[in-house]
Amino acid sequence: MLREFGIDDILLLLTGAKWTVLLSLIAFTGGGLLGLMVAIGRVFGPGPLKFLIECYIRAIQGTPLLGQLFLFYFGFSIFGFDVSAWVAISVAMVFFSSAFLGDSWRGCIEAIPKTQWEAADALGMSFVQKLCYVVLPQAARIAIPSTVGFMAQIVKNTSLAAVVGFVDLLRMGQLVTAATFQPLTVYLVVAFMYFAMCYPLSQWSRILERRYNATHQH
Amino acid sequence: MPLINIESIHKTFGKLEVLKGVSLDIAAGEIVVIIGRSGSGKSTLLRCINGLEKVESGKVVVDGTEVSAAKADLRALRQKIGIVFQSFNLFPHLTIEKNVTLAPRVVKKVSPDEAKKAAITALERVQIANKSGAYPSQLSGGQQQRVAIARSLAMSPKIMLFDEITSALDPELVGEVLKVLENLASEGMTMVLVTHEMGFARKVANRVVFMHEGKVWEQGAPETLFKSPKTPELAGFINSVL
């Protein structure tokens, strides 16, 4: 019952791609918000909080994402929460992203020289004002390449979600291959779709960097 | 009551005692220049005045507020005390105009229009109003330093502190910054300067304070101090810099 690879299959793959995009967006938005808190807590928080955040970062960076996905997927049900694969995967991806972004942004915040804080201090700014108007805008500029690079990583990492039954782009590729038995064609199309998602990100990073560097060279 | 009252302050960094009981009173409108070898504590003394450095003992009172008190409202105080640093410390991500309007807008909650007007006035005072749209990196050191002065002036401070503000500049750019300082002095601003520009100290200061090994070693009117130093340390210092 094999069929030819055709327009219907492309549409199927696009459905898979839609979930990939959606999951990436959740991972990035949620991970970004939590990551900002992780970064700020890690730099400015009291000692015990810093330590806890450090443990959190180490735990997530030191274990494979695949393992984390399993842990959340099965962990929820063990503790009696009946959640869908969607929720479990989203939560796992958000934690994963927040640890990486948080740690990388921590470095960006710490890269801003102490003299910038001092200049803002001397003008009577509050902590939040110093952070929002002086430090974070400059840290954001440094963070652009690594952050956008990580966004592309997230897009590709979402494919791991297939292991708990989530039908993303890659999983859909497997299903279409099973029906058409044309792996080369299918996976080439799948690869192109991933590329079509990631390439604009790297271009965007370049545009952002160029825009900032044009006016802010030291 | 002097505007700035410093009473036997002590300050250590690790094992190094930088200020060993410094007392100094500065009256409103006075221009005080602090001189001394590097490591003599002059910059630290300056930074104690607006609380950028905490003193370990002794008292610093500025305009009736005790800076050295544990619960001092440093934010309110710093709005009255401008400071300009050796390394400019402009905000590199903001244009010149935004560098100057930022603090009035967010700290003093001045309206954007008013802040802009005040910024233009401040930039005119330092003769650099034509660069308001540029970024700090596009300016020369002398221009950046003048913007840093304007940034402080825009907060309408009662006192201005200057921490070796010409030391990082190419020699040909020092003059333009000193000229701005002279103008400020002639407008009656209370100024405390740490500087190596002895010619400037002579010309503009009401009083010169010589610091040596964490203490006020000698002070007085510039003419007397430079012409007839009482201590061998000051005499040696003058010889080495002139």
From TrEMBL, chain A:
Residues 17-205 form the ABC transmembrane type-1 domain. The keyword Transmembrane applies. SUPFAM superfamilies: MetI-like. InterPro entries: AA_ABC_transptr_permease_3TM, ArtM/GltK/GlnP/TcyL/YhdX-like, MetI-like, MetI-like_sf. It is a multi-pass membrane protein. One of its GO terms (cellular component) is ATP-binding cassette (ABC) transporter complex. It is found in: Cell inner membrane; Cell membrane. CDD domains: TM_PBP2. This is Amino acid ABC transporter permease. It comes from Aliishimia ponticola.
Automatic annotation (TrEMBL), chain B:
Transmembrane segments: none annotated. One of its GO terms (molecular function) is ATP hydrolysis activity. It is a peripheral membrane protein. It comes from the Bacteria. Keywords: Amino-acid transport, ATP-binding, Cell membrane, Membrane, Nucleotide-binding, Transport. The keyword DNA damage does not apply. InterPro entries: AAA+_ATPase, ABC_ATPase_HisP-typ, ABC_transporter-like_ATP-bd, ABC_transporter-like_CS, MetN_ABC_transporter-like, P-loop_NTPase. GO terms for cellular component: plasma membrane. The keyword Cell membrane applies. It is found in: Cell membrane. Residues 4-238 form the ABC transporter domain. Belongs to the ABC transporter superfamily. This is Amino acid ABC transporter ATP-binding protein. The lineage of its organism: Bacteria, Pseudomonadati, Pseudomonadota, Alphaproteobacteria, Rhodobacterales.
